[in-house]
Amino acid sequence: MIELVNVTKSYNGATKAVDQLTLTVPKGEIFGFLGPNGAGKTTTIKMVTGVIRPDQGEITINGKNIGTTPLEAKQQFGYVPDSPDQFLRLKGLEYVNFMADMYQVPKEVRGQRIMELARRFDMTSALGDSIQSYSHGMRQKIMIMGVLVHNPEVWILDEPLTGLDPKSSFTLKEMMREHADSGRTVFFSTHVLEVAEKLCDRVAIINKGKILFCGTFKEMQQHFQSDVSLESLFLELTKHE
């Protein structure tokens, strides 16, 4: 579970990137976080993951406060950032093992877990190559593998499907569904509204740092008394903001 209560973040003491945001993402749910560029999505995710601090408000992950008990909170989640261009000098297997070391994954279970992830993402033959030699999609896959190797309760994914080929995209969406159905939490941002419409149990739409809507797609249709697509409702909701 992820909980944000009255979270605010300003830049330069003036522009509020996130403004009094309150949000609850329960267990057993795929939660989509949607908004136009500059809406506050990535700032929110960086605060949830402890990369930056909010000016005010409380953020907890499975009851652990990211501000006061950051190590305990960070043990609860795996975070895929919006850019996979990291640790380029390492080989794929070295990176995933490094992440396993960081989260103290026992040697007797990590090997099987790494090979299962590599199999699902078609990365088995590439594990011995340097990340620098990977395509963008392969880098994205190795970052996802590194995040999932400690089997975190909460997945926090910032545009995770960008650059993935159709098969890998399908695999990740399948794994997200499995994770939520097992009673755990998936929180992800995406620009691909068709994916959000088909995959998410609930969505929140943020613009200019404020939540404009939070609920199921069906609730959104009922609210606007319309049976059009999520894309159409999203454009209608954000055009005047």
UniProtKB/TrEMBL annotation:
It holds the Pfam family ABC_tran. Keywords: ATP-binding, Nucleotide-binding, Transport. Coiled coil: none annotated. Residues 2-233 form the ABC transporter domain. PROSITE patterns: ABC_TRANSPORTER_2. GO terms for molecular function: ATP binding; ATP hydrolysis activity. The keyword Transport applies. The keyword ATP-binding applies. This is ABC transporter ATP-binding protein. It comes from Brevibacillus parabrevis.
